[in-house]
Amino acid sequence: MTMALDQQPKRQFKYVGTRPPRPDGIDKVTGRAQYGNDLVAPGMLWAKILRSPHAHAKIVSIDTSAAEALAGVKAVVTARDFPAIEGDAGMRDVQLNCMADTHVWYEGHAVAAVAATSDALARQAVKLIRVVYEILPHVTDVDAAMAPNAPLVREGQAMENVPAGMSANVTYTSEFGHGDLTSGFAKADLVIERVFKTAATHQGYIEPHACLASMSSDGRGELWTCTQGHFYFRTACAAILGIEASGLRVTASEIGGGFGGKTQVWAEPVALALAKKSGKPVKLTMTRDEVFRGTGPTVTTSMTCKIGMTKAGRITAGEATLRYSGGAYHTGTCDMGAMAGFAAYDLDVVRTYGWNVLTNRPKEIAYRAPGAPQAIYAVESTIDELCQKLNLDPLDVRILNAARKGTKSSYGVVFEDIGLLEALHAAKTHPHWTTPVAPGTSRGIACGFWFNFGGNTCVSLNIGTDGTVSVSEGNPDIGGSRASIALMAAEELGVPYETVRVVIADTASLGYNDNTDGSRVTFAVGLATIKAAIAAKTNMMARAAQVWGIDPEAVEWVDGAACPAGPNAGKFPPMTLAEIAANSFSTGGPIAGHCDFQADGAGVSFGVHIADVKMDMETGKTELLRYTVFQDAGKAVHPDYVEGQMQGGAVQGIGMALNEEYIYSDKGTILNAGFLDYRIPVASDLPMIEAVILEIPNPGHPYGVRGVGETPICPPLATMANAISRGIGARLYELPMSPPRVLKAIKGA
Amino acid sequence: MVKVALWGTLRQYADGLAEVEVEAATFKQLLDVLSARYPGLKPQIARGVSVAIDGRVYREAWFTPIKPGSQVVLMPYMVGG
Predict the structure, then answer these.
(1) Cβ contact A174–B58 (<8 Å)
(2) In what order do the strands lie in the sheet with A221-225?
(3) Residue A232 is inside which H or E element, if any?
(4) Is residue A660 within 8 Å of A680, Cβ to Cβ?
(5) The pLDDT of residue A258 is above 50
(6) Which of A:454-483 have CB within 8 Å of B?
(7) In angstroms, rounded to a whole number, what is the distance separating the alpha carbons of residues A678 and B45?
């Protein structure tokens, strides 16, 4: 039964909104926490994957005999060891990405794997595998892939909505928006149209993919892995191996970052296949080089954005065409970008088009607000350029056009309560904005948006006989969710935070939980925890009523104890949770609450970022001097982690803006598959990022919680571009704005 | 009857309409009616659609009630990172 929780009166919080230490903190700083690569098993083998050196090729033959003959090698697998999935094209793509069948579609595509008694032997053995390739023409640039006569990446992948006559690499298209473009642009005093390009960027999580797989002779398996969603991993691995999901139990290790990149299986089915073939546990850990070449970065894009504006700063029409490539596989990421691009604005006329295009790049996987940062970069840069040309204040223009409650969004949905205007007004009065721009520096501002969602969620909450509480939930804790969930359980039950322990249950112990993604965990798992706590409270109040001999309806829960509700209920002293728990064996047995549901009502989230930069006009280097993030969190359950998400998202967006990119050779091979050459921002590159939390309650959550993890990666690309353009007097239309590109723009200005 | 807004790409399969009227009391009924009336929508519905009802997005819950007069917007299935 779904309760109308959002109808509850707003409440004063005792625990929610405080900043207690994270429960997993000591384990993590002392090295006791078990990450993917920490897991070992008796008799364990070591696995290594052989990967394609070519961007595109037909596999003529694979000879594994020499590897199999090497002493210490216990199993070798190729595509022949995986039953081809039928009837599910999406999962077949995942399978073919884990192990190439007839063709390799990108450099780094897995073609075979070995399990041996040592890591060194496994590395030696993969070198003995002989693969004969017939090299095929390749394409890595999205515009080149859309051109007539482009090298064909894969045949027959176009969906029903692709118009005839397009390049065969175009697989999907979408369109969103409303209003008449012609009349909308006619109302503008100035219309500009620009083309933008963004590079593929990697999530750059610190911990490479790692897992330990075991399969017994009866076909049942165990998998311990570093994942954002062990329930999905069970589904995917079972499908790829052709076993029943219940035959595989998956346990999530601690996770050293994911940001979307660990929402998909890459190595796990391979490790399980090797374990099945060898009869031994198999450990598979990727190197950083493999992470770059063999797992998913973002889309690479080419985008056209056209916006009309009046002299007063009102946007009269906006149009964007997004050309996205997620490698050699279909992706719907262009939908997300096409819906998100103009979402921050209240527009009478808006139209966006998304195109998905195949290229010979690794399979894209979600990266924090997938598809949105790129589209928002194009829109926010174009708006800023209009402000420059019309001599308008870029913050005032955003306030004038901002989406608000009742706005029909660019993707058709009418917004409920949202916090964009509050974030913009907070920015306008903040010392960062009110402080004059220092000589020799420049300032940029941009907005961002993400949808957020809830999803499938299952939580069990158990009351211990000593009055402590354990919460079993099914989402790996990436951003401090154990602390947030414990705070919400403590709040609802009225017990100290320290008495609540949150554990991440394995796939055999709890119902299905969607991935830790979509900024969903604090919202959805938190909501499930509140519902489970309410169920446990209801149980405890019934027991107190029984002890007192009154109706359960005459009992209420106040500050961690059952109390008579009003003078007519009788005079009884409060019965605390601990007292009820201590007597539970005599009053009906263990006390627990449970919730399994599809969480909906996740409120959308908006952010506003401001950056001050100093440009080195001789080298093109950007020095970031000051950066402030304003974001609506609905209700910040644990403000430390909300601030951490806002700062972390901003840093990753700054990396996309300034330095991060996959660089390809003319042979379609990656030239910078390591952190030395793929430059993510480090602490010394950045000032302390100030996070300003706004709290405009989400009507879909009893505490008002909104997801916060993805929105902050959306504004930085344009925030930085807008600051840099004002700093050098010229605008760049391609990311990253690395020093050579900035220098070129300076010289061309 | 409820009015359902279709995103641009879907309109070609719905006689060019940006908005269609259907008799549906739940998300599932909505999908069934749309599939039956406009078979061209079936591939996208099979790939996954979400729905927004009066501003709130429901990712896939079939039995989400739709009141007469609600604002209903069909959306691609939501993904995140």
Answers:
(1) no
(2) A73-77, A110-116, A45-51, A282-285, A210-215, A221-225, A248-252
(3) helix A230-241
(4) yes
(5) yes
(6) 454-455
(7) 39
Chain A segment 147-176 residues within 8 A of B by beta carbon are: 159-161, 173-176
ipTM: 0.94
Q: Is B63 an interface residue toward A (CB < 8 Å)?
A: no
What are the pLDDT digits (tens) for A479-510?
899 999 999 999 999 999 999 999 999 999 99
Count other Cβ atoms within 10 Å, centred on residue A558.
Answer: 12
Spell out which residues of chain B touch residue A298, defining contact as CB-CB under 8 Å.
none
Residue identified by tokens 């690569």 is: A37
Task: Kindly report the pTM of this predicted structure.
Answer: 0.96
- Three-state DSSP state, A90: helix
CATH 3.10.20.30 fits B2-76, yes or no: yes
The H or E element spanning position B2 is: strand B2-5
Rounded CA-CA distance A53/A660 in Å is: 23
> A329 CB near a chain B CB, below 8 Å?
no
Residue A8 has what pLDDT? 44
Inter-chain CB proximity B81 and A452 less than 8 Å: no
Angular region, A110: left φ>0, alpha ψ -120 to 50, beta rest:
beta
Tens digit of each residue's pLDDT (9 = 90 or more) over A318-331:
999 999 999 999 98
Nearest-CA distance from A503 to chain B in Å?
A: 22
Measured CA to CA, the distance from residue A603 to residue A449 in angstroms comes to: 11
Domains and CATH numbers, chain A: 5-33+454-599 (3.30.365.10)
Q: Which residues contact A435 (CB under 8 A, 6 or more apart)?
A: none
